[in-house]
Design brief:
Strand order of the largest sheet: 5-8-9-16-13-10-6-7
Largest sheet: 8 strands, antiparallel
Structural class: alpha+beta
Shape: globular
Number of strands: 16
Distance between the termini: 36 Å
Strand content: 15-25%
Amino acid sequence: MIVKDFRHWLEILEKEGELARVSEKVDWYLEIGAIVEETYRRKGPALLFENIKDHENTFCRRFFSASLSTYPRIALMMGLPKDTPYPELIKVHRERVKKPLKPVIVASGPVKQNIMKNEEVDMTAFPAPHWHKMDGGRYIGTFDGVVTRDPDTGWLNVGLYRRMVHDSRHLGISIPTGQHIWRHWRKYKKLGKPMPVAVVNNWSPVLPAIACCPLPPDADEYDYMGALRQEPVELVKCETNDLLVPAAAEIVYEGEICTNMDDFRWEGPFGEYTGYFTSEKQKAPVFTVN
Protein backbone atom coordinates (compact mmCIF):
# COMPACT_ATOMS: atom_id res chain seq x y z
CA MET A 1 0.00 0.00 0.00
CA ILE A 2 1.37 3.42 -1.00
CA VAL A 3 1.53 5.92 1.86
CA LYS A 4 -0.30 8.88 0.31
CA ASP A 5 0.41 11.52 2.93
CA PHE A 6 0.95 12.06 6.65
CA ARG A 7 -2.67 11.51 7.67
CA HIS A 8 -2.74 8.26 5.72
CA TRP A 9 0.48 7.27 7.49
CA LEU A 10 -1.17 7.83 10.88
CA GLU A 11 -4.13 5.67 9.79
CA ILE A 12 -1.80 2.84 8.74
CA LEU A 13 0.18 2.97 11.98
CA GLU A 14 -2.97 3.02 14.10
CA LYS A 15 -4.50 0.11 12.19
CA GLU A 16 -1.31 -1.92 12.64
CA GLY A 17 -1.06 -1.16 16.37
CA GLU A 18 2.10 0.89 15.78
CA LEU A 19 0.96 4.27 17.13
CA ALA A 20 0.58 5.55 20.69
CA ARG A 21 -1.35 8.78 21.28
CA VAL A 22 0.02 10.48 24.39
CA SER A 23 -2.82 12.46 25.96
CA GLU A 24 -1.12 13.15 29.32
CA LYS A 25 0.51 16.58 29.46
CA VAL A 26 4.22 16.48 28.72
CA ASP A 27 6.91 19.15 28.90
CA TRP A 28 8.76 20.16 25.73
CA TYR A 29 11.81 20.70 27.95
CA LEU A 30 13.61 17.33 28.26
CA GLU A 31 10.50 15.22 28.98
CA ILE A 32 9.55 14.58 25.34
CA GLY A 33 13.18 13.77 24.59
CA ALA A 34 13.39 11.29 27.47
CA ILE A 35 10.13 9.55 26.50
CA VAL A 36 11.21 9.25 22.87
CA GLU A 37 14.63 7.90 23.84
CA GLU A 38 13.14 5.28 26.15
CA THR A 39 10.65 4.30 23.44
CA TYR A 40 13.54 3.80 21.00
CA ARG A 41 15.31 1.54 23.49
CA ARG A 42 12.22 -0.58 24.03
CA LYS A 43 11.41 -0.67 20.27
CA GLY A 44 8.07 0.87 21.13
CA PRO A 45 5.46 2.52 18.92
CA ALA A 46 5.46 5.78 17.02
CA LEU A 47 4.42 8.63 19.32
CA LEU A 48 1.87 11.40 18.80
CA PHE A 49 2.01 13.85 21.71
CA GLU A 50 -1.34 15.66 21.93
CA ASN A 51 -1.02 17.69 25.14
CA ILE A 52 2.17 19.75 25.43
CA LYS A 53 3.05 22.32 28.08
CA ASP A 54 2.84 25.94 26.80
CA HIS A 55 1.24 24.77 23.56
CA GLU A 56 -2.33 24.18 24.68
CA ASN A 57 -3.54 27.08 22.49
CA THR A 58 -0.83 27.69 19.88
CA PHE A 59 -1.69 27.08 16.23
CA CYS A 60 0.44 23.91 16.34
CA ARG A 61 -0.32 21.79 19.40
CA ARG A 62 0.85 18.27 18.56
CA PHE A 63 4.21 16.60 18.04
CA PHE A 64 4.95 13.36 16.16
CA SER A 65 8.07 11.22 16.51
CA ALA A 66 9.65 7.76 16.17
CA SER A 67 7.64 6.56 13.18
CA LEU A 68 10.64 4.87 11.50
CA SER A 69 12.50 3.63 14.58
CA THR A 70 11.74 -0.08 13.99
CA TYR A 71 12.05 -2.41 10.99
CA PRO A 72 8.33 -3.29 10.98
CA ARG A 73 7.45 0.39 10.50
CA ILE A 74 10.11 0.78 7.80
CA ALA A 75 8.41 -2.15 6.05
CA LEU A 76 5.03 -0.39 6.32
CA MET A 77 6.58 2.77 4.86
CA MET A 78 7.56 0.72 1.82
CA GLY A 79 4.10 -0.83 1.52
CA LEU A 80 5.33 -4.25 2.67
CA PRO A 81 4.00 -6.54 5.43
CA LYS A 82 5.43 -5.43 8.73
CA ASP A 83 6.97 -8.86 9.37
CA THR A 84 9.15 -8.54 6.25
CA PRO A 85 12.69 -9.71 7.20
CA TYR A 86 15.41 -7.07 7.39
CA PRO A 87 17.49 -8.54 4.50
CA GLU A 88 14.40 -8.41 2.30
CA LEU A 89 13.89 -4.72 3.15
CA ILE A 90 17.43 -4.02 1.93
CA LYS A 91 16.85 -6.01 -1.25
CA VAL A 92 13.58 -4.25 -2.07
CA HIS A 93 15.06 -0.83 -1.30
CA ARG A 94 18.00 -1.45 -3.62
CA GLU A 95 15.79 -2.67 -6.44
CA ARG A 96 13.39 0.25 -6.21
CA VAL A 97 15.98 3.03 -6.14
CA LYS A 98 17.50 1.65 -9.34
CA LYS A 99 14.40 3.06 -11.09
CA PRO A 100 13.95 6.72 -10.06
CA LEU A 101 10.53 8.25 -10.81
CA LYS A 102 10.38 11.90 -11.83
CA PRO A 103 7.98 14.02 -9.77
CA VAL A 104 4.86 15.65 -11.18
CA ILE A 105 4.32 19.40 -10.73
CA VAL A 106 0.74 20.35 -9.89
CA ALA A 107 -0.98 23.73 -9.57
CA SER A 108 -1.91 23.49 -5.90
CA GLY A 109 -2.57 21.15 -3.00
CA PRO A 110 -3.54 20.83 0.68
CA VAL A 111 -0.26 22.43 1.80
CA LYS A 112 -1.59 25.76 0.45
CA GLN A 113 -4.66 25.69 2.71
CA ASN A 114 -3.26 28.04 5.37
CA ILE A 115 -0.58 30.60 4.55
CA MET A 116 1.20 32.96 6.97
CA LYS A 117 3.72 35.52 5.76
CA ASN A 118 6.32 37.81 7.30
CA GLU A 119 5.18 39.16 10.68
CA GLU A 120 2.42 36.53 10.92
CA VAL A 121 5.13 33.87 11.22
CA ASP A 122 5.93 32.58 14.71
CA MET A 123 8.21 29.57 14.87
CA THR A 124 7.96 29.54 18.67
CA ALA A 125 4.33 28.45 18.28
CA PHE A 126 5.55 24.99 17.25
CA PRO A 127 6.14 22.59 20.20
CA ALA A 128 9.78 22.01 19.30
CA PRO A 129 11.50 19.95 22.01
CA HIS A 130 14.59 20.83 23.99
CA TRP A 131 15.79 17.26 23.53
CA HIS A 132 18.83 16.98 25.80
CA LYS A 133 20.05 18.94 28.81
CA MET A 134 23.23 20.18 27.09
CA ASP A 135 21.53 21.20 23.83
CA GLY A 136 21.92 24.82 22.81
CA GLY A 137 18.17 25.30 22.55
CA ARG A 138 14.94 23.93 21.10
CA TYR A 139 15.34 22.02 17.84
CA ILE A 140 12.48 22.17 15.38
CA GLY A 141 14.21 20.17 12.66
CA THR A 142 15.74 16.75 13.27
CA PHE A 143 13.90 14.42 10.85
CA ASP A 144 12.33 16.26 7.91
CA GLY A 145 13.48 17.60 4.52
CA VAL A 146 15.43 20.80 3.74
CA VAL A 147 15.04 21.88 0.10
CA THR A 148 17.62 24.02 -1.73
CA ARG A 149 18.58 24.57 -5.39
CA ASP A 150 21.91 25.00 -7.17
CA PRO A 151 21.82 28.54 -8.64
CA ASP A 152 23.87 27.46 -11.68
CA THR A 153 22.47 24.06 -12.68
CA GLY A 154 19.01 24.06 -11.08
CA TRP A 155 19.80 20.84 -9.17
CA LEU A 156 17.22 20.47 -6.40
CA ASN A 157 18.43 18.86 -3.19
CA VAL A 158 16.43 17.57 -0.22
CA GLY A 159 18.64 16.91 2.80
CA LEU A 160 18.49 16.56 6.55
CA TYR A 161 20.09 19.46 8.43
CA ARG A 162 19.20 20.37 12.00
CA ARG A 163 17.59 23.70 12.96
CA MET A 164 17.63 25.45 16.34
CA VAL A 165 14.98 28.05 17.21
CA HIS A 166 16.44 31.51 17.86
CA ASP A 167 13.20 33.51 17.94
CA SER A 168 9.87 33.85 16.14
CA ARG A 169 11.35 34.21 12.64
CA HIS A 170 14.96 33.05 12.91
CA LEU A 171 16.50 29.59 13.12
CA GLY A 172 20.11 28.48 13.36
CA ILE A 173 20.93 25.88 10.71
CA SER A 174 23.82 23.44 10.52
CA ILE A 175 25.51 23.37 7.09
CA PRO A 176 28.26 20.75 7.34
CA THR A 177 31.27 21.21 5.05
CA GLY A 178 31.04 18.98 1.99
CA GLN A 179 27.32 18.28 2.25
CA HIS A 180 25.09 19.08 -0.71
CA ILE A 181 23.48 22.06 1.00
CA TRP A 182 27.01 23.43 1.61
CA ARG A 183 27.75 23.22 -2.13
CA HIS A 184 24.65 25.27 -2.85
CA TRP A 185 25.31 27.72 -0.01
CA ARG A 186 28.89 28.31 -1.13
CA LYS A 187 27.69 29.32 -4.60
CA TYR A 188 25.20 31.79 -3.17
CA LYS A 189 27.95 33.18 -0.93
CA LYS A 190 30.10 33.87 -4.02
CA LEU A 191 27.10 35.63 -5.59
CA GLY A 192 26.71 37.75 -2.46
CA LYS A 193 23.09 36.65 -2.07
CA PRO A 194 21.12 34.79 0.62
CA MET A 195 20.11 31.23 -0.30
CA PRO A 196 16.39 30.41 -0.77
CA VAL A 197 15.27 27.44 1.34
CA ALA A 198 12.14 25.49 2.18
CA VAL A 199 11.57 22.85 4.87
CA VAL A 200 8.98 20.09 4.59
CA ASN A 201 7.43 18.54 7.70
CA ASN A 202 5.08 15.55 7.77
CA TRP A 203 4.26 14.29 4.33
CA SER A 204 5.08 10.65 3.51
CA PRO A 205 7.72 8.98 5.72
CA VAL A 206 9.78 8.35 2.57
CA LEU A 207 10.74 12.05 2.71
CA PRO A 208 13.06 11.93 5.76
CA ALA A 209 14.06 8.35 4.87
CA ILE A 210 15.49 9.53 1.54
CA ALA A 211 16.61 12.97 2.79
CA CYS A 212 19.12 11.28 5.11
CA CYS A 213 20.44 8.90 2.42
CA PRO A 214 23.94 9.49 0.95
CA LEU A 215 22.90 10.06 -2.67
CA PRO A 216 25.41 11.37 -5.25
CA PRO A 217 25.69 15.06 -6.19
CA ASP A 218 23.11 16.29 -8.73
CA ALA A 219 20.67 13.54 -7.69
CA ASP A 220 17.13 14.76 -7.07
CA GLU A 221 15.83 13.15 -3.88
CA TYR A 222 12.23 13.50 -5.10
CA ASP A 223 13.05 11.00 -7.88
CA TYR A 224 14.12 8.46 -5.27
CA MET A 225 11.15 9.16 -3.01
CA GLY A 226 8.94 8.35 -5.98
CA ALA A 227 10.89 5.15 -6.59
CA LEU A 228 10.65 4.04 -2.96
CA ARG A 229 6.88 4.67 -2.74
CA GLN A 230 6.38 3.45 -6.35
CA GLU A 231 4.42 6.53 -7.33
CA PRO A 232 5.65 9.97 -8.48
CA VAL A 233 5.72 12.75 -5.90
CA GLU A 234 3.27 15.58 -6.59
CA LEU A 235 5.03 18.91 -6.07
CA VAL A 236 3.91 22.53 -5.88
CA LYS A 237 5.90 25.74 -6.15
CA CYS A 238 6.64 27.62 -2.94
CA GLU A 239 5.06 31.00 -2.16
CA THR A 240 8.24 33.12 -1.95
CA ASN A 241 10.77 31.31 -4.16
CA ASP A 242 11.00 28.77 -7.00
CA LEU A 243 11.60 25.74 -4.80
CA LEU A 244 9.25 22.74 -5.03
CA VAL A 245 7.62 20.90 -2.12
CA PRO A 246 5.14 18.01 -1.80
CA ALA A 247 1.61 19.28 -2.46
CA ALA A 248 0.14 17.20 0.37
CA ALA A 249 2.66 18.14 3.09
CA GLU A 250 1.23 19.19 6.46
CA ILE A 251 3.73 22.00 7.10
CA VAL A 252 6.22 23.85 4.91
CA TYR A 253 8.19 26.86 6.06
CA GLU A 254 10.24 28.85 3.58
CA GLY A 255 12.68 31.70 3.63
CA GLU A 256 16.37 32.36 3.10
CA ILE A 257 19.71 31.50 4.70
CA CYS A 258 22.26 34.27 5.19
CA THR A 259 25.64 33.99 3.47
CA ASN A 260 27.30 36.94 5.22
CA MET A 261 29.30 35.48 8.10
CA ASP A 262 28.84 38.70 10.09
CA ASP A 263 25.17 37.70 10.42
CA PHE A 264 25.89 34.26 11.90
CA ARG A 265 24.61 33.41 15.39
CA TRP A 266 25.63 30.82 17.96
CA GLU A 267 24.10 27.38 17.31
CA GLY A 268 24.40 24.10 19.17
CA PRO A 269 25.56 21.89 20.61
CA PHE A 270 23.08 19.09 19.89
CA GLY A 271 23.00 15.48 21.07
CA GLU A 272 23.25 13.50 17.85
CA TYR A 273 21.67 10.18 16.83
CA THR A 274 24.94 8.45 17.77
CA GLY A 275 24.15 9.11 21.42
CA TYR A 276 26.93 11.68 21.80
CA PHE A 277 27.56 15.40 21.48
CA THR A 278 29.86 15.49 18.46
CA SER A 279 30.51 19.24 18.24
CA GLU A 280 30.64 22.35 20.42
CA LYS A 281 28.62 25.55 20.18
CA GLN A 282 29.64 27.48 17.07
CA LYS A 283 28.65 30.40 14.88
CA ALA A 284 26.27 29.17 12.15
CA PRO A 285 24.15 30.63 9.33
CA VAL A 286 20.73 32.06 10.19
CA PHE A 287 17.55 30.93 8.43
CA THR A 288 15.00 33.77 8.25
CA VAL A 289 11.48 32.35 7.86
CA ASN A 290 9.23 34.32 5.55
